[in-house]
Write a structure and sequence with these properties.
By secondary structure, the protein is mostly helical. It is built from 8 helices and no strands.
Length: 204
């Protein structure tokens, strides 16, 4: 076992302790509420009802991760559809936010408190997605394809219909659009690979 794999197992075991799991639950609920109000509040007031689910990306998936944690705590680890979509959303939108702030800094803007805090918290969001992926023990090809279809639809609503999140200054919308399409593709392929691996392990 490599040092990285061993560290991953130790961190995962720590998170699964009840006190840590429920602490993380509360943190994600609070983060979801604050993020929706702080970053998306004005946008949500002008968004039609049918597009609401596509707008507050990071706060939504922070809240969904809290639900996934509650499911794990209650012994309901077989929420494969839900956990597969939540896993992709956590990683995808965590990468989106970290990329936005890196481009912001590269454009010559200072490392503000907002940019640093959001970068660190969204790195945490990516790690939450990686942790949740370890619970996709019953993942099948249909789950992977459903998750991929959902996030391609989300990308189209964001960049095709113009319901994308507001960005920091100095960030190219076109670059972020293509980055999201590439990330959606890679994460869908990751789920397909994971489903194939799980099925292979069961066949042995």
């Amino acid at each position: 076992m490599t040092a990285v794999a061993q560290t991953y197992r130790q961190v995962r075991a720590l998170i699964l302790r009840p006190w840590a799991l429920w602490t993380l639950f509360v943190i994600n609920v609070i983060a979801g509420v604050i993020g929706a109000i702080y970053w998306y509040g004005a946008d949500l007031l002008q968004t039609p009802w049918w597009a609401l689910v596509f707008v507050p990306d990071c706060p939504l998936f922070a809240a969904l991760f809290a639900v996934a944690l509650a499911g794990i705590a209650l012994g309901r680890r077989e929420w494969t559809w839900f956990n597969a979509i939540t896993t992709v959303g956590l990683i995808k939108y965590g990468i989106w936010t970290v990329t936005v702030w890196i481009l912001f800094w590269r454009a010559g803007y200072p490392a503000t408190t907002e940019s640093v805090v959001m970068t660190l918290t969204h790195i945490g969001m990516i790690l939450e997605g990686v942790m949740l992926a370890s619970f996709l023990t019953r993942l099948r090809l249909r789950h992977a394809l459903l998750a991929g279809a959902w996030f391609y639809l989300s990308d189209w609503v964001d960049y095709g219909l113009g319901f994308r999140p507001r960005m920091a200054p100095g960030v190219s919308e076109t670059f972020m659009m293509w980055e999201m399409i590439v990330v959606t593709t890679l994460l869908t392929l990751f789920l397909v690979w994971l489903a194939w691996r799980r099925r292979g392990a069961e066949a042995v």
